[in-house]
Amino acid sequence: MVAMQLDLYKASGADLIMGAGRFIAPKTIGVGLNDGGARVPIGDRVVLNLGTHATIPDTPGLAAAKPLTNVEALELDRLPDHLVVIGGGYVGLEMAQAYRRFGSRVTIIEAGPQLAGREDSDVATALLEMLRDEGIKVHLGTKVLGVQGRSGQTVSLQLHTPSGDQTIEGSDLVAAGRTPNTEGIGLELAGVALDTRGYVAVNNRLETSAPDVWAVGECAGSRQFTHVSADDFRIVRENLVGGDRTTRGRLVPYRMFTDPPLARVGLSEDEARRQGMPFVSRNCRSSRFCGRGQRRRRAAS
Ligand SMILES: Cc1cc2nc3c(=O)[nH]c(=O)nc-3n(C[C@H](O)[C@H](O)[C@H](O)COP(=O)(O)OP(=O)(O)OC[C@H]3O[C@@H](n4cnc5c(N)ncnc54)[C@H](O)[C@@H]3O)c2cc1C
Q1: 109 phi and psi, to 5 degrees?
Q2: Tell me, which fold does domain 55-178 have in CATH?
Q3: Structure pTM?
Q4: Does ligand 1 have an atom closer than 6 angstroms to the CB of 21?
């Protein structure tokens, strides 16, 4: 993939500079080159495509416990005895199910009232039943108050659950959070404002607060999918040649790689309800997705 992308760049005739960049003045980037030296490109127009990086939440003892992030969890060459996953979003759920099927005991801790917080509640309930059927423990509405120990050996987590405080033990810990790469790169020198969560603030044409500076992909707070970042690029390209495409109302297909997988495109029922849009409801329980969980439970009983 990397070689293919590099070949495409070379074929395009674009100048590709490999290094770490930061604004040193508006539209002016100082780049420390990977193989030594520096370059200072100045653009008429600048597009920021900075992405995000794995981060560990600010919970007492969590950083000291050296949890796996999504990067290390994909590279592990041993089987955890008991993996505790903090966060019941797509990445956390995919990892939880994969490690359970490899043979680990797995516990998921989610602060919100349901798994996969953006999905309709019947879909989230089906996911919960499916994972519990496989023997995964799930704590919903649960806050991690503190962590002791070291991931890879023994960890102990103090939890605040809806039914009271409790402590659980595990062997390994995964923290699946992501933070935008917007710190320490001189955005303030370029007049590029951030939103309250630290993402580059953009309008629906992906223009930032600085003239002729755009931001695309995850750093602009777009949905965290490869094809959304690619579509952000299309929006900027069309606006540069006089078009008027925006991020408003775009349909984002996506898929969560659980088994069975969950795929969706368009509004959820909750989103349609919030927008006052009429819809026909087909309860998730009649779908194949739920059917498999029910079959498993029937087989188990
Ligand atoms: C575990 C995991 C699973 C995922 N699964 C899926 C999936 O199944 N389907 C899907 O569609 N998406 C998935 N995603 C999300 C997808 O990978 C991202 O949405 C996508 O890569 C974002 O693209 P981007 O261009 O916005 O940022 P990135 O791909 O992060 O690219 C940004 C680049 O900018 C570079 N950069 C940052 N700051 C600087 C700087 N100052 N100077 C120079 N370079 C800099 C970074 O090094 C990086 O190479 C997954 C993500 C994770 C973490």
Answers
A1: -120, 120
A2: FAD/NAD(P)-binding domain (3.50.50)
A3: 0.85
A4: yes
